[in-house]
Specification:
single chain, alpha/beta, 7-stranded mixed sheet, 7 strands, 40% helix
């Protein structure tokens, strides 16, 4: 646990570098499409219990709460939770808050949730397999897991296209610890194997940002955003594009 990342020191940087950018918008839109598919599998008026594990600043949690669901947001960072509380207030929704590491959630929460969401956490945790086991324990029988992780293949491809050969030769191990470059980029096949070992059946895989991050002309990320977004939507579930996405989102049951 002592090797897992806490973002108290760079909470503001998260807001600027991720949520307020074109890459953040694409991520939010594509992931939300997948979450709507999960919601559609339940009776329309059913109030669901949902855990946003490592939910950060609460964007998805607030959207789900607005739909009338009982949403709990869990994060190891107290500062992130404060941002989430402020965001919930501006959206006039109520969330439940847990300032804990996901792996430390007590046994009373076992099999509590219809849906567990865990986005962009796996790549910051030393024991990735242990995290997935903890998530499985929190799911009700036949519950759904929404898991998004930073893709090792996408990182390698991007690093080589930038000509950063030294970084490749270092095994993609970053020099500075307090950055937004994840500590443990994940090989998708390894993640899929962990899910299988814990009897979590993959229903769908989606690539998050299959084109955006590889564009040479960065100005077109904004100037041609709508066209880019349509292409992201069109190809995000198709190979070979999915394999090279910066993030991969998995729906499992």
């Amino acid at each position: 646990m002592d090797t897992d990342r806490n973002f108290d020191d760079i909470t503001d940087k998260f807001a600027q570098n991720i949520y307020g950018t074109t890459k953040g918008k694409i991520r939010e839109i594509i992931v939300w499409q997948d979450i709507e598919k999960i919601l559609a599998l339940f009776p329309k008026q059913q109030k669901l219990t949902i855990l946003d594990a490592g939910g950060g600043q609460g964007q998805i949690a607030c959207k789900l709460a607005k739909l009338g669901h009982d949403v709990t947001i869990c994060d190891i960072s107290a500062q992130m939770l404060e941002v989430a509380k402020n965001h919930a207030q501006t959206q006039f929704v109520t969330l439940n808050y847990l300032n804990k590491a996901i792996q430390d959630l007590p046994a009373e929460f076992a099999q509590s949730y219809d849906i567990v969401i865990c986005h962009a956490v796996l790549e910051w945790v030393n024991n990735g397999k242990g995290l997935i086991y903890a998530l499985k324990q929190l799911l009700k029988p036949s519950g759904f897991l929404s898991l998004m992780f930073y893709n090792l293949h996408g990182l390698l491809f991007r690093t080589v296209t930038l000509g950063n050969f030294g970084y490749v030769q270092m095994g993609l191990n970053k020099r500075k610890k307090k950055t937004l470059s994840p500590d443990y980029p994940r090989n998708p096949d390894e993640v899929y194997q962990w899910l299988s070992e814990f009897s979590l059946r993959i229903l769908e895989k989606t690539g998050i940002r299959v084109f955006h991050d590889y564009m040479l002309d960065k100005s077109k990320q904004q100037n041609r955003f709508n066209e880019l977004l349509e292409l992201e939507k069109k190809f995000c579930r198709q190979e070979p594009y999915l394999q090279l996405a910066r993030y991969i989102h998995v729906i499992a049951q």
